[in-house]
Amino acid sequence: MITGSQSWNSSFATTPTGSGFSVSPTGSTGAASQSITNSVPGITSMSSTTNTVTGGSTDLSDSGSPEPTRTPTTATAGNNGGMTTTWASSNSTAPTPSPFPAANYTQVAFLASLAEDTCYHLPEEPHGELSRRALMRNSKLREDNVTVPVPYIQSVEFESEGVRPLSMTVRDKSQGTFHIDISNRSRLAIASSDGYAMQIDGSGIRFATKDCRYDVNITIPNLFSQIANLSSVGCSVGTGAQPFPSPIPVPLINTNTKRAEDIKFNQTLLLRDQCGSPVTKAIRAYPQLRVGETTCQDIAVDENSGTWEFDCTFPGAISGILKCQNAVKNDIIDFLNRDSFGGACPDISTMIATLGVTGNDMLSRDALGVALYNQRGASNADNSSSVIENVASGYTLLWESLQGFFTPQNASVNSPWEEYIGTYNKHRSFENDICEDLHTGEIPLSLNLLVGATYIDAVTTLNWAPRAARSYNVTVQDPAAIACCPNGSEADDQGKDTCAYPREAVIEDTNCSCGKTAGGQSLAFEAMECDNFEGRCERDEDCQGGGSVCVVGTCCGGGVCVDPYACSQNGTALVKFADGWS
């Protein structure tokens, strides 16, 4: 057993043995070369050199330790209870980076730690609310005798509003599951149900457990550009080339299924104010018709009749279901196939396949295990080589799962991910199934209207875009018009202590009543002490105030002069749409 810290050296290569990790001399070169040809498009031949440590031939496992199983069982990687990128805390050590003589990559360094203050976790709902999960209709495909490629997507996790995808749960051939992080376009990350995680970005590759123990950070400057050079595919960052187009012959989007954003219809409203006058463009606030949360556009107005024509879409560009569809297309389909890492690199399948061929010396179980073993405390039983060996095996299995999902298999031009999406969209719609699952409860959508001082939350409700929408006659309140009202009446028992207006003339929860002017028009006016009115009157001409009118039959023993605009401008609802005003 090695008792001291080990460092990388080109004189020795690690190889697995029946009892764990071992180190054996390789001669003067220290390299075990392997010819790689035709494994990835654009790669003709290169060598892969195994990782090395200093010292003689030494067994790195505890004496008598059995060969570990390929299933990670270490207690340090518990169930993954998190879904935002969160950071866990623990007591940290202060390891130093160790240069690694990678065969195909430059400036590679390993930084392993038995305990870190921060590490990667699967993304969670950012505001602490419950996330939402959409289940794929794989069982429906099987019912239609469609063979679902394996591995396949089981579900997609979204934040609470159901419009931003966080991660995908993938089921593999052994019916195990792992999770692909799709919340951040600058990286690709995978996590197992046991709590192991692997993250790839432009600066390197990181492995971690759920509780931030046994972390391995492989620093590789300009990783994407180095991968692009090895794959002979240009990246837009550092090479000036355009992003690599995905060579996928299967459909990414089901073109036979019409997307909700394409469904448009025209809606006509006949708008009149509280006095029956046509509503013109001069009204404030300007008419705003919406389907759910999406605003329609007015395309024609006949001010003589108050006829307004609107161009609407269903369910609308900012509806939950359509925002979800756009997010699925941009953050899942395009990110994983065409616009990987913002277009800075070849597509993810090419990247993973190239890294799998050219980076095995860095990503092997032995390389990861030796890096962790070198940080082991000599007397800490929790850091025994068998535990480290299981962790390294867990990381290796995670890397193999990532390759198995994104790397073409058996000479296929498509990765299993691409095969799955192609098969799914041939028979159903990946976007629609996900978003309908999340947003079905939001249909029907209300056709709501805001105009003047009136808001109608549902002129009607829509389950789909109407082919020939019916017109609606709508009365709205214009604050610039006088306070016309229905059911204008004179007071009962005028001049007596019991004087009052009939119930139908009382505007509830306001200080206004619907009376009669001397000219016979119904008008809402503000109630007050009789001595506080502008004056007494029998006709409008008796009122001296500018614009005042005479309301007759009041409880003041006759007519009084009132401001005809007061109840139109003080927030009184002169127009209602359930019971009462209409």
From TrEMBL:
- What is the superkingdom listed in this entry's lineage? Eukaryota
Residue ranges for the region (Disordered) are 1-99
Polar residues composition-biased segments:
1-42
> Where is there biased composition of kind Low complexity?
44-95
Q: What is this protein called?
A: Uncharacterized protein
Q: Which organism is it from?
A: Clonostachys rhizophaga
